[in-house]
Design brief:
The chain is α/β, with parallel strands linked by helices and 481 residues long. The chain is 32% helix and 22% strand.
Length: 481
Amino acid sequence: MNQQFEQQLQSSWQERQDYAERMQPIIGNLYRNHAVEITVYGRTLLNASAIDVIKAHRSVRLFEGEKLKLRESWPVLEAISQMKLSPCEVDIGKLAFAFHYGAAKDQTDLVAYLRSVLVDVVDQNDSQEPKDVVLYGFGRIGRLLARLMIERQGKANKLRLRAIVVRGGREGDLEKRASLLRRDSVHGPFNGSITVDTERNAIKANGSYIQVIYANHPSEVDYTQYGINNAIVVDNTGMWRDEEGLSQHLKAKGAAKVLLTAPGKGAIKNIVHGVNHRDIVDSDIILSAASCTTNAITPVLKAIDEAYGIENGHVETVHSFTNDQHLIDNYHKADRRGRAAPLNMVITETGAAKAVAKAYPQLEGKLTGNAIRVPTPNVSMAILNLNLKVELDKETINQFLQQTSLFSKLLHQIDYTASKEIVSTDLVGARAAAIVDSQATIVAGNRATLYVWYDNEFGYSCQVMRVVRDMAGVSIPCIPL
Protein backbone atom coordinates (compact mmCIF):
# COMPACT_ATOMS: atom_id res chain seq x y z
CA MET A 1 0.00 0.00 0.00
CA ASN A 2 2.78 2.43 0.89
CA GLN A 3 4.67 1.57 -2.29
CA GLN A 4 1.52 2.08 -4.38
CA PHE A 5 0.88 5.44 -2.71
CA GLU A 6 4.44 6.55 -3.34
CA GLN A 7 4.16 5.58 -7.00
CA GLN A 8 0.93 7.54 -7.36
CA LEU A 9 2.50 10.54 -5.68
CA GLN A 10 5.53 10.38 -7.94
CA SER A 11 3.36 9.94 -11.02
CA SER A 12 1.22 12.95 -10.08
CA TRP A 13 4.29 15.11 -9.57
CA GLN A 14 5.78 13.96 -12.86
CA GLU A 15 2.58 14.89 -14.69
CA ARG A 16 2.61 18.40 -13.21
CA GLN A 17 6.27 18.86 -14.08
CA ASP A 18 5.65 17.70 -17.64
CA TYR A 19 2.82 20.19 -18.13
CA ALA A 20 4.85 23.01 -16.55
CA GLU A 21 7.79 22.34 -18.86
CA ARG A 22 5.46 22.29 -21.88
CA MET A 23 4.03 25.63 -20.80
CA GLN A 24 7.37 27.43 -20.48
CA PRO A 25 8.22 27.92 -24.18
CA ILE A 26 4.66 28.99 -25.00
CA ILE A 27 4.65 31.54 -22.18
CA GLY A 28 7.98 32.93 -23.37
CA ASN A 29 6.91 33.07 -27.00
CA LEU A 30 3.64 34.84 -26.21
CA TYR A 31 5.47 37.61 -24.41
CA ARG A 32 8.57 37.98 -26.59
CA ASN A 33 6.67 38.02 -29.87
CA HIS A 34 3.22 39.32 -28.95
CA ALA A 35 3.55 41.19 -25.60
CA VAL A 36 1.01 38.84 -24.02
CA GLU A 37 1.92 38.12 -20.39
CA ILE A 38 0.54 34.98 -18.75
CA THR A 39 -0.34 34.88 -15.05
CA VAL A 40 -2.03 32.56 -12.56
CA TYR A 41 -4.11 34.42 -9.99
CA GLY A 42 -1.97 37.51 -10.42
CA ARG A 43 1.38 35.69 -10.29
CA THR A 44 3.38 36.21 -13.46
CA LEU A 45 4.74 33.13 -15.21
CA LEU A 46 7.13 35.12 -17.38
CA ASN A 47 10.63 33.66 -16.92
CA ALA A 48 9.22 31.31 -14.26
CA SER A 49 10.84 27.94 -13.61
CA ALA A 50 8.79 24.75 -13.89
CA ILE A 51 8.61 24.62 -10.08
CA ASP A 52 7.36 28.23 -9.98
CA VAL A 53 4.60 27.34 -12.46
CA ILE A 54 3.54 24.42 -10.27
CA LYS A 55 3.59 26.55 -7.11
CA ALA A 56 1.47 29.24 -8.77
CA HIS A 57 -1.18 26.62 -9.54
CA ARG A 58 -1.04 25.22 -6.01
CA SER A 59 -1.73 28.67 -4.58
CA VAL A 60 -5.18 28.70 -6.23
CA ARG A 61 -6.50 26.32 -3.57
CA LEU A 62 -5.72 28.92 -0.89
CA PHE A 63 -8.13 31.35 -2.54
CA GLU A 64 -10.79 29.09 -4.05
CA GLY A 65 -10.78 26.03 -1.78
CA GLU A 66 -10.38 23.86 -4.89
CA LYS A 67 -7.29 22.63 -6.69
CA LEU A 68 -6.48 23.89 -10.16
CA LYS A 69 -4.62 21.19 -12.04
CA LEU A 70 -2.05 22.04 -14.68
CA ARG A 71 -3.83 19.71 -17.09
CA GLU A 72 -6.87 22.01 -16.68
CA SER A 73 -5.02 25.25 -17.43
CA TRP A 74 -2.88 23.72 -20.22
CA PRO A 75 -5.71 23.68 -22.83
CA VAL A 76 -6.42 27.34 -22.00
CA LEU A 77 -2.82 28.33 -22.63
CA GLU A 78 -2.65 26.20 -25.76
CA ALA A 79 -5.82 27.79 -27.18
CA ILE A 80 -4.60 31.31 -26.39
CA SER A 81 -1.32 30.62 -28.16
CA GLN A 82 -3.29 30.00 -31.38
CA MET A 83 -5.10 33.35 -31.19
CA LYS A 84 -3.98 36.73 -32.47
CA LEU A 85 -4.00 38.99 -29.41
CA SER A 86 -2.96 42.59 -28.93
CA PRO A 87 -0.73 43.34 -25.88
CA CYS A 88 -2.45 42.22 -22.67
CA GLU A 89 -2.10 40.27 -19.45
CA VAL A 90 -4.09 37.05 -19.38
CA ASP A 91 -4.73 35.09 -16.18
CA ILE A 92 -5.04 31.49 -17.32
CA GLY A 93 -5.63 30.43 -13.73
CA LYS A 94 -8.83 32.45 -13.40
CA LEU A 95 -10.02 31.50 -16.89
CA ALA A 96 -9.41 27.78 -16.30
CA PHE A 97 -11.03 27.81 -12.88
CA ALA A 98 -14.10 29.63 -14.20
CA PHE A 99 -14.43 27.14 -17.08
CA HIS A 100 -14.09 24.02 -14.92
CA TYR A 101 -15.60 25.09 -11.59
CA GLY A 102 -17.00 28.61 -11.80
CA ALA A 103 -19.38 30.77 -13.80
CA ALA A 104 -18.52 29.16 -17.15
CA LYS A 105 -18.58 25.50 -16.01
CA ASP A 106 -21.70 24.75 -18.07
CA GLN A 107 -19.96 25.78 -21.30
CA THR A 108 -18.48 23.03 -23.46
CA ASP A 109 -16.62 25.01 -26.13
CA LEU A 110 -13.41 26.29 -24.54
CA VAL A 111 -12.29 28.31 -27.57
CA ALA A 112 -15.66 30.05 -27.85
CA TYR A 113 -15.56 30.87 -24.15
CA LEU A 114 -12.04 32.28 -24.39
CA ARG A 115 -12.86 34.39 -27.43
CA SER A 116 -15.85 35.86 -25.60
CA VAL A 117 -13.72 36.80 -22.59
CA LEU A 118 -10.85 38.09 -24.75
CA VAL A 119 -13.12 39.96 -27.16
CA ASP A 120 -11.39 43.31 -26.58
CA VAL A 121 -7.93 42.01 -27.49
CA VAL A 122 -8.51 39.11 -29.90
CA ASP A 123 -7.88 39.74 -33.62
CA GLN A 124 -6.68 43.26 -32.83
CA ASN A 125 -3.66 44.91 -34.42
CA ASP A 126 -0.82 46.08 -32.20
CA SER A 127 -0.43 49.76 -33.05
CA GLN A 128 1.61 50.75 -30.00
CA GLU A 129 5.12 51.97 -30.77
CA PRO A 130 8.08 51.13 -28.50
CA LYS A 131 9.30 53.91 -26.21
CA ASP A 132 12.89 54.72 -25.32
CA VAL A 133 13.69 54.84 -21.59
CA VAL A 134 16.78 56.32 -19.92
CA LEU A 135 17.80 55.74 -16.30
CA TYR A 136 19.41 58.83 -14.81
CA GLY A 137 21.30 57.31 -11.89
CA PHE A 138 22.12 53.67 -11.29
CA GLY A 139 21.71 53.03 -7.57
CA ARG A 140 19.42 50.58 -5.79
CA ILE A 141 16.24 51.57 -7.64
CA GLY A 142 17.99 52.24 -10.95
CA ARG A 143 19.49 48.76 -11.11
CA LEU A 144 16.19 47.09 -10.21
CA LEU A 145 14.40 49.10 -12.90
CA ALA A 146 17.06 47.89 -15.32
CA ARG A 147 16.41 44.27 -14.29
CA LEU A 148 12.67 44.71 -14.76
CA MET A 149 13.07 46.12 -18.27
CA ILE A 150 15.71 43.62 -19.34
CA GLU A 151 13.64 40.62 -18.21
CA ARG A 152 10.96 41.74 -20.67
CA GLN A 153 13.35 42.03 -23.58
CA GLY A 154 11.85 40.94 -26.92
CA LYS A 155 10.76 42.27 -30.28
CA ALA A 156 7.27 43.03 -28.94
CA ASN A 157 8.61 44.87 -25.89
CA LYS A 158 7.14 48.37 -25.57
CA LEU A 159 9.66 49.89 -23.17
CA ARG A 160 13.28 49.79 -24.33
CA LEU A 161 16.07 50.57 -21.90
CA ARG A 162 18.46 52.51 -24.10
CA ALA A 163 20.88 54.18 -21.69
CA ILE A 164 21.92 54.91 -18.14
CA VAL A 165 23.52 58.18 -17.05
CA VAL A 166 26.01 58.21 -14.19
CA ARG A 167 28.78 60.35 -12.82
CA GLY A 168 32.36 59.22 -12.96
CA GLY A 169 34.10 57.63 -15.87
CA ARG A 170 37.19 56.51 -13.96
CA GLU A 171 39.12 53.48 -15.09
CA GLY A 172 37.20 50.32 -14.31
CA ASP A 173 33.92 52.18 -13.72
CA LEU A 174 32.01 50.37 -16.46
CA GLU A 175 33.01 46.95 -15.16
CA LYS A 176 31.93 47.88 -11.65
CA ARG A 177 28.55 49.15 -12.86
CA ALA A 178 28.02 45.89 -14.75
CA SER A 179 29.11 43.86 -11.72
CA LEU A 180 26.57 45.61 -9.50
CA LEU A 181 23.86 44.79 -12.02
CA ARG A 182 25.08 41.19 -12.26
CA ARG A 183 25.22 40.54 -8.49
CA ASP A 184 22.99 41.87 -5.72
CA SER A 185 23.38 41.00 -2.03
CA VAL A 186 19.64 41.32 -1.44
CA HIS A 187 17.96 40.37 -4.71
CA GLY A 188 20.41 37.72 -5.84
CA PRO A 189 22.14 37.18 -9.17
CA PHE A 190 20.91 38.69 -12.42
CA ASN A 191 18.83 36.20 -14.40
CA GLY A 192 20.78 36.14 -17.62
CA SER A 193 23.96 37.17 -19.36
CA ILE A 194 25.82 40.47 -18.98
CA THR A 195 28.86 41.56 -20.96
CA VAL A 196 30.73 44.86 -21.15
CA ASP A 197 31.61 46.74 -24.35
CA THR A 198 34.47 48.94 -23.14
CA GLU A 199 35.12 50.41 -26.56
CA ARG A 200 31.61 51.83 -26.85
CA ASN A 201 30.91 52.34 -23.13
CA ALA A 202 27.97 49.98 -23.10
CA ILE A 203 26.48 47.05 -21.22
CA LYS A 204 24.92 44.16 -23.14
CA ALA A 205 22.35 42.20 -21.16
CA ASN A 206 20.04 39.48 -22.54
CA GLY A 207 20.07 41.08 -25.98
CA SER A 208 19.64 44.63 -24.68
CA TYR A 209 22.28 47.18 -25.70
CA ILE A 210 22.48 49.77 -22.90
CA GLN A 211 24.60 52.85 -23.51
CA VAL A 212 26.43 54.11 -20.42
CA ILE A 213 26.68 57.90 -20.53
CA TYR A 214 28.97 59.77 -18.16
CA ALA A 215 27.74 63.23 -17.18
CA ASN A 216 27.63 65.43 -14.10
CA HIS A 217 24.53 67.34 -15.21
CA PRO A 218 21.58 66.77 -17.56
CA SER A 219 22.68 69.71 -19.71
CA GLU A 220 25.79 67.78 -20.70
CA VAL A 221 23.83 65.00 -22.41
CA ASP A 222 22.73 64.70 -26.02
CA TYR A 223 20.71 61.50 -26.26
CA THR A 224 20.12 61.86 -29.99
CA GLN A 225 23.75 61.10 -30.77
CA TYR A 226 23.05 57.59 -29.47
CA GLY A 227 19.88 57.24 -31.54
CA ILE A 228 17.65 57.93 -28.54
CA ASN A 229 14.59 60.11 -29.19
CA ASN A 230 11.53 61.25 -27.24
CA ALA A 231 12.77 59.31 -24.25
CA ILE A 232 11.29 59.03 -20.80
CA VAL A 233 14.06 59.89 -18.34
CA VAL A 234 13.66 58.18 -14.98
CA ASP A 235 15.56 60.22 -12.39
CA ASN A 236 16.40 57.92 -9.49
CA THR A 237 19.12 60.15 -8.00
CA GLY A 238 16.77 62.26 -5.85
CA MET A 239 18.98 65.30 -6.51
CA TRP A 240 16.07 67.37 -7.80
CA ARG A 241 12.51 67.06 -6.57
CA ASP A 242 10.82 70.21 -7.84
CA GLU A 243 9.73 71.25 -11.31
CA GLU A 244 12.58 73.69 -11.78
CA GLY A 245 15.25 71.12 -11.01
CA LEU A 246 13.70 68.23 -12.92
CA SER A 247 12.99 70.37 -15.98
CA GLN A 248 16.75 70.46 -16.56
CA HIS A 249 16.41 66.96 -18.01
CA LEU A 250 14.12 68.29 -20.72
CA LYS A 251 16.86 70.55 -22.01
CA ALA A 252 18.83 67.49 -23.11
CA LYS A 253 18.26 66.60 -26.76
CA GLY A 254 16.19 63.46 -27.11
CA ALA A 255 14.44 63.73 -23.72
CA ALA A 256 10.66 64.16 -23.75
CA LYS A 257 9.40 63.36 -20.25
CA VAL A 258 10.76 62.93 -16.73
CA LEU A 259 9.70 60.61 -13.90
CA LEU A 260 11.08 61.10 -10.39
CA THR A 261 11.44 58.04 -8.14
CA ALA A 262 10.85 60.04 -4.96
CA PRO A 263 8.10 62.33 -3.65
CA GLY A 264 7.75 65.39 -5.85
CA LYS A 265 7.44 68.89 -4.46
CA GLY A 266 5.13 71.72 -5.42
CA ALA A 267 2.58 71.12 -8.15
CA ILE A 268 4.18 67.92 -9.46
CA LYS A 269 1.66 65.08 -9.59
CA ASN A 270 2.60 62.26 -7.22
CA ILE A 271 1.34 59.08 -8.89
CA VAL A 272 0.56 55.88 -7.01
CA HIS A 273 -0.30 53.42 -9.71
CA GLY A 274 -3.67 51.80 -9.15
CA VAL A 275 -4.91 54.81 -7.21
CA ASN A 276 -4.51 57.95 -9.33
CA HIS A 277 -2.65 56.85 -12.46
CA ARG A 278 -5.67 57.84 -14.52
CA ASP A 279 -4.76 61.44 -13.69
CA ILE A 280 -1.81 61.11 -16.10
CA VAL A 281 -2.45 62.98 -19.34
CA ASP A 282 -0.34 63.30 -22.49
CA SER A 283 0.66 66.85 -21.58
CA ASP A 284 2.30 65.73 -18.30
CA ILE A 285 6.05 65.96 -18.89
CA ILE A 286 7.22 65.82 -15.25
CA LEU A 287 5.75 63.34 -12.79
CA SER A 288 6.66 61.69 -9.50
CA ALA A 289 6.16 58.05 -8.55
CA ALA A 290 5.89 59.11 -4.87
CA SER A 291 7.72 57.05 -2.22
CA CYS A 292 7.87 53.32 -1.52
CA THR A 293 5.81 53.71 1.65
CA THR A 294 3.19 55.91 -0.01
CA ASN A 295 2.85 53.27 -2.74
CA ALA A 296 2.44 50.56 -0.12
CA ILE A 297 -0.18 52.17 2.08
CA THR A 298 -2.30 54.24 -0.32
CA PRO A 299 -3.89 51.33 -2.26
CA VAL A 300 -4.86 49.57 0.99
CA LEU A 301 -6.19 52.79 2.51
CA LYS A 302 -8.19 53.56 -0.63
CA ALA A 303 -9.77 50.10 -0.65
CA ILE A 304 -10.67 50.27 3.05
CA ASP A 305 -11.98 53.83 2.80
CA GLU A 306 -14.22 53.05 -0.17
CA ALA A 307 -15.60 49.93 1.51
CA TYR A 308 -15.97 51.05 5.13
CA GLY A 309 -14.97 54.72 5.43
CA ILE A 310 -11.96 55.96 7.41
CA GLU A 311 -12.57 58.58 10.11
CA ASN A 312 -8.89 59.00 10.95
CA GLY A 313 -5.80 56.97 11.70
CA HIS A 314 -2.09 56.67 12.34
CA VAL A 315 0.56 55.04 10.12
CA GLU A 316 3.72 53.65 11.72
CA THR A 317 6.33 52.37 9.31
CA VAL A 318 9.00 49.87 10.29
CA HIS A 319 11.47 50.56 7.52
CA SER A 320 14.72 48.90 6.48
CA PHE A 321 17.77 51.15 6.61
CA THR A 322 18.77 53.03 3.46
CA ASN A 323 21.82 54.73 1.96
CA ASP A 324 20.79 57.95 3.64
CA GLN A 325 21.96 56.48 6.97
CA HIS A 326 25.51 55.71 8.10
CA LEU A 327 27.07 52.29 8.69
CA ILE A 328 28.80 53.63 11.81
CA ASP A 329 28.11 56.70 13.93
CA ASN A 330 28.88 59.86 12.00
CA TYR A 331 27.56 63.36 11.48
CA HIS A 332 24.14 63.62 9.81
CA LYS A 333 22.06 66.76 9.46
CA ALA A 334 18.89 64.88 10.45
CA ASP A 335 18.14 63.88 14.03
CA ARG A 336 19.25 60.34 14.99
CA ARG A 337 20.10 59.28 11.42
CA GLY A 338 23.78 59.70 12.15
CA ARG A 339 23.72 56.64 14.41
CA ALA A 340 24.90 53.30 13.00
CA ALA A 341 22.12 51.86 10.84
CA PRO A 342 23.09 48.14 11.21
CA LEU A 343 23.14 48.42 15.01
CA ASN A 344 20.15 50.54 15.96
CA MET A 345 16.44 51.03 15.68
CA VAL A 346 16.14 54.69 14.76
CA ILE A 347 13.00 56.76 15.26
CA THR A 348 12.63 59.22 12.39
CA GLU A 349 10.02 61.06 10.39
CA THR A 350 8.02 59.96 7.37
CA GLY A 351 5.99 62.15 5.08
CA ALA A 352 4.10 59.16 3.71
CA ALA A 353 0.96 59.68 5.81
CA LYS A 354 0.54 63.24 4.54
CA ALA A 355 1.62 62.23 1.03
CA VAL A 356 -1.31 59.82 0.78
CA ALA A 357 -3.60 62.81 0.24
CA LYS A 358 -1.69 63.83 -2.91
CA ALA A 359 -2.76 60.58 -4.55
CA TYR A 360 -6.03 60.06 -2.66
CA PRO A 361 -7.42 63.45 -1.52
CA GLN A 362 -10.31 61.85 0.41
CA LEU A 363 -7.91 61.25 3.32
CA GLU A 364 -6.60 64.81 3.48
CA GLY A 365 -5.85 65.68 7.12
CA LYS A 366 -7.04 62.31 8.47
CA LEU A 367 -3.71 60.56 8.98
CA THR A 368 -0.63 61.01 11.14
CA GLY A 369 2.59 59.09 10.67
CA ASN A 370 6.00 58.23 12.03
CA ALA A 371 8.79 55.80 11.17
CA ILE A 372 11.29 53.47 12.77
CA ARG A 373 14.37 52.49 10.76
CA VAL A 374 15.52 48.98 11.64
CA PRO A 375 18.72 46.94 10.99
CA THR A 376 17.48 45.00 7.95
CA PRO A 377 18.58 45.73 4.37
CA ASN A 378 15.21 45.38 2.64
CA VAL A 379 11.47 44.72 3.11
CA SER A 380 9.54 47.04 5.38
CA MET A 381 6.19 47.10 7.14
CA ALA A 382 3.46 49.68 7.62
CA ILE A 383 1.12 49.37 10.59
CA LEU A 384 -2.20 51.06 9.84
CA ASN A 385 -4.21 51.97 12.94
CA LEU A 386 -7.59 53.07 11.59
CA ASN A 387 -10.84 54.32 13.06
CA LEU A 388 -13.58 53.28 10.65
CA LYS A 389 -17.09 54.60 10.11
CA VAL A 390 -18.60 51.15 10.69
CA GLU A 391 -18.05 48.25 13.06
CA LEU A 392 -16.89 44.93 11.67
CA ASP A 393 -14.77 41.90 12.51
CA LYS A 394 -11.40 40.45 11.53
CA GLU A 395 -12.82 37.80 9.22
CA THR A 396 -14.88 40.33 7.26
CA ILE A 397 -12.03 42.77 6.64
CA ASN A 398 -9.58 39.99 5.78
CA GLN A 399 -12.00 38.40 3.34
CA PHE A 400 -12.55 41.78 1.71
CA LEU A 401 -8.82 42.40 1.32
CA GLN A 402 -8.26 38.92 -0.09
CA GLN A 403 -10.94 39.45 -2.72
CA THR A 404 -9.51 42.90 -3.47
CA SER A 405 -6.09 41.36 -4.06
CA LEU A 406 -7.54 38.91 -6.60
CA PHE A 407 -10.49 40.46 -8.37
CA SER A 408 -10.22 44.25 -8.26
CA LYS A 409 -8.39 46.94 -10.17
CA LEU A 410 -5.89 46.98 -7.30
CA LEU A 411 -4.80 43.38 -7.87
CA HIS A 412 -1.29 44.49 -8.93
CA GLN A 413 -0.93 46.75 -5.91
CA ILE A 414 -2.35 44.61 -3.09
CA ASP A 415 -1.27 41.05 -2.33
CA TYR A 416 -2.47 38.93 0.59
CA THR A 417 -0.95 36.25 2.77
CA ALA A 418 -2.56 33.90 5.27
CA SER A 419 0.74 32.36 6.37
CA LYS A 420 1.39 32.11 10.09
CA GLU A 421 5.14 31.80 9.55
CA ILE A 422 5.97 34.54 7.02
CA VAL A 423 8.79 36.96 7.87
CA SER A 424 10.41 39.84 6.04
CA THR A 425 13.01 37.90 4.04
CA ASP A 426 10.25 35.75 2.54
CA LEU A 427 9.00 38.82 0.70
CA VAL A 428 12.19 39.92 -1.01
CA GLY A 429 11.26 40.25 -4.67
CA ALA A 430 7.52 40.70 -4.07
CA ARG A 431 6.07 42.55 -7.06
CA ALA A 432 3.00 43.95 -5.34
CA ALA A 433 3.21 47.36 -3.71
CA ALA A 434 1.75 45.91 -0.50
CA ILE A 435 1.17 42.49 1.06
CA VAL A 436 -1.53 42.34 3.72
CA ASP A 437 -0.58 40.03 6.62
CA SER A 438 -4.02 38.67 7.47
CA GLN A 439 -2.84 36.72 10.51
CA ALA A 440 -1.79 39.97 12.22
CA THR A 441 -5.04 41.86 11.56
CA ILE A 442 -6.72 43.19 14.72
CA VAL A 443 -10.29 44.46 14.80
CA ALA A 444 -12.25 45.78 17.76
CA GLY A 445 -15.54 47.44 16.93
CA ASN A 446 -14.78 50.26 14.52
CA ARG A 447 -11.01 50.14 15.20
CA ALA A 448 -8.84 48.14 12.81
CA THR A 449 -5.09 47.56 12.80
CA LEU A 450 -3.61 46.23 9.58
CA TYR A 451 -0.06 45.01 9.07
CA VAL A 452 1.17 45.63 5.54
CA TRP A 453 4.49 44.30 4.26
CA TYR A 454 6.29 45.79 1.26
CA ASP A 455 9.54 45.25 -0.58
CA ASN A 456 10.61 48.88 -0.45
CA GLU A 457 13.03 48.28 -3.32
CA PHE A 458 11.61 45.73 -5.77
CA GLY A 459 7.89 46.21 -5.12
CA TYR A 460 8.34 49.96 -5.44
CA SER A 461 10.34 49.53 -8.66
CA CYS A 462 7.44 47.52 -10.11
CA GLN A 463 5.14 50.43 -9.32
CA VAL A 464 7.55 52.84 -11.00
CA MET A 465 7.53 50.72 -14.15
CA ARG A 466 3.73 50.80 -14.22
CA VAL A 467 3.87 54.61 -14.19
CA VAL A 468 6.52 54.59 -16.95
CA ARG A 469 4.20 52.41 -19.02
CA ASP A 470 1.35 54.89 -18.61
CA MET A 471 3.60 57.84 -19.47
CA ALA A 472 4.58 55.98 -22.64
CA GLY A 473 0.92 55.50 -23.55
CA VAL A 474 1.25 51.74 -23.43
CA SER A 475 -2.09 50.05 -22.68
CA ILE A 476 -1.95 46.55 -21.19
CA PRO A 477 -5.44 45.37 -20.19
CA CYS A 478 -5.67 42.66 -17.55
CA ILE A 479 -8.08 39.83 -18.40
CA PRO A 480 -10.08 38.89 -16.45
CA LEU A 481 -10.19 41.10 -13.38
